[in-house]
Design goal:
Blueprint (H helix, E strand, L loop, with lengths): L3 E2 H8 L2 E3 L8 E2 L1 E3 L9 E3 L13 H6 L3 E4 L10 E3 L3 H14 L4 E6 L4 H12 L5 E3 L9 H6 L8 E5 L7 H9 L3 E4 L7 H4 L2 H8 L2 H4 L5 E5 L3 H4 L10 E4 L2 H9 L7 E11 L2 E8 L2 E7 L5 H15 L4 H9 L9 E5 L2 E5 L6 H12 L5 E6 L8 H14 L4 E5 L3 H7 L5 E5 L2 H11 L5 E5 L7 H11 L1
Helix pairs in contact: 3-6, 4-12, 4-13, 12-13, 14-15, 15-16
């Protein structure tokens, strides 16, 4: 992190400084909300959570040499500190200020599904030419995004920042922090409908980014998504479109979209169970690639990465190298070997679109294909129907067995009528024990559910039993 003085921190957070004038020139080179990581030259920002209040750890943090922001005046404090109205808001304000102190291009990754895999693809491409900082894991919300920003060093040339929301005005707050130069929009899907109501609401919430950014912004959007095709001629400006569907490409051309704004793909075929071939058609060039991650949806990710790479001056060879060297991360369609059993670990989170995409990947795997699925959260009044539709999709994909746990997942089982073995459970432990008895060498198991279902336990149990 580039050093900031306490005077700068106080200004950025709209706070009140307590300490000597001399100490105002003291610098911090790290920001954390975790008291265990706070030491010298570190700014500790205590947040109030449902289980704990970071303010309770200020005394120990100060003894360790860190500087604190606080919502409460500190008595008998020998070290300087900064008083703010809200540490939660101060965290965001400071991140916004910090990013203005850097000379760096920012790529924001937005969408209902596939943000993390797209972020990995874009970063992999850009790393062929630039020093890149990307969001780690799922640090994409109003706490995670600022903490990601503070990881940016002066040497970094591009930041690829994932931005996740679940309610209206949240994208407005995130966009103020990131203020991106480019935005990739992956899709508009049935996610967080408890708050966003319907797909039009999802589109509206994601599109808040265009109201906030204070510099020229280039949107790169999925032209296969009907909702995103409506951005043409709106406040989104003149988007670049990426499409793997020829019909979508035709519709865009009928709208008068020029070829230089179209990134298309054909020749899409599975090379084997773990990779896919495609030819990418970008303005004035084509690139034949082997994407080392299964699933046709990754062709769209590759096109998005190619579009960003082209905008940032990468060559055809650099784009190809970046796409072909991308890797998956834990919990996101990550392949794990447990002896002779293959696990598709995709259990970080789930929604109808991602569930169906993961089932598509499973359907192309060798051996018996077993789906272990769980409840999907925040789907509003349509939740039962959306779970049934996932089950119907599983049945269409010739899955050999379906194990589900949870009240809503019973609807997946109902929709999956026709699959040879369907087992539904109320308790996760019971499902795990019967699943272990059912599995055989050569099986491929997809494990996927919303995070609150605790499905990483399923992956751990299979690894322990067969690894």
């Amino acid at each position: 992190m580039k050093a900031l003085t306490l005077e700068q921190v106080t200004y950025a957070c709209k706070g009140r400084y307590f300490g000597s004038v001399k100490d105002q020139e003291q610098t911090i080179t790290q920001v954390t909300t975790d008291s265990r990581k706070a030491g010298r030259n570190c700014l500790f920002i205590p947040l109030k959570g449902t289980r704990a209040d970071g303010h309770d750890y200020i005394e120990s943090v100060v003894l360790g040499g860190a500087i604190c922001l606080t919502e409460k005046k500190l008595t008998q404090a020998e070290e300087p500190y900064i008083l703010v109205d809200s540490t939660y808001q101060a965290l965001k304000d400071l991140a916004q200020y910090y990013l203005t102190q850097l000379s760096i291009k920012v790529v924001g990754i937005i969408g209902s599904v596939g943000k993390t895999s797209t972020k990995e693809m874009v970063a992999s491409v850009l790393e062929q030419k630039y020093k890149v900082l990307k969001t780690a894991g799922n640090f994409n919300n109003e706490v995670g995004l600022p903490l990601t920003v503070f990881r940016i060093e002066e040497e970094h040339e591009v930041a690829v920042l994932e931005m996740g929301i679940s309610e209206f005005q949240e994208m407005t707050r995130l966009a103020r922090i990131a203020n991106p130069d480019y935005v990739v929009m992956t899709n508009i899907g049935a996610c967080h409908l408890e708050n966003l109501i319907d797909l039009d609401g999802v589109l509206k919430a994601k599109s808040e980014v265009f109201d906030v950014v204070t510099k020229p912004l280039q949107a790169v959007v999925n032209g296969d998504d009907a909702k995103l095709r409506t951005l043409e001629g709106t406040k989104a400006g003149t988007p670049i479109y990426f499409c793997k569907d020829q019909k979508s490409a035709g519709l865009l051309k009928e709208q008068g979209i020029a070829n230089e704004r179209l990134y298309l793909a054909d020749g899409i075929e599975s090379r084997d169970a773990y990779s896919i071939n495609a030819t990418l058609h970008i303005p004035d060039e084509e690139i034949s690639v082997t994407i080392p991650i299964p699933g046709e949806h990754n062709v769209a990710n590759a096109l998005a990465a190619a579009a960003i790479g082209k905008q940032l001056g990468l060559t055809k060879e650099e784009i190809k190298a970046g796409i072909e060297s991308v890797q998956t991360i834990s919990g996101r369609s990550n392949f794990v070997k447990a002896g002779a059993v293959t696990i598709i670990d995709d259990c970080y989170n789930a929604n109808p679109m991602s569930m169906k995409a993961s089932l598509d990947v499973l359907s192309n795997m060798p051996g018996r294909k077993i789906a272990v699925l769980g409840d999907m959260g925040e789907l509003g009044s349509q939740e039962k129907q959306l779970h049934r539709e996932v089950g119907e999709h599983a049945a269409e994909k010739s899955i050999d067995a379906l194990f589900v746990c949870g009240e809503l997942s019973k609807e997946i089982a109902k929709g999956a009528a026709g699959i040879a073995k369907i087992a539904s459970y109320d308790k996760l432990d019971e499902m795990i024990e019967e699943l272990k008895c059912y599995l055989e060498d050569g099986d491929t198991v997809l494990v996927k559910a919303s995070h609150f279902m605790e499905y990483p336990k399923v992956v751990e149990a299979i690894e322990k039993a067969f690894g």
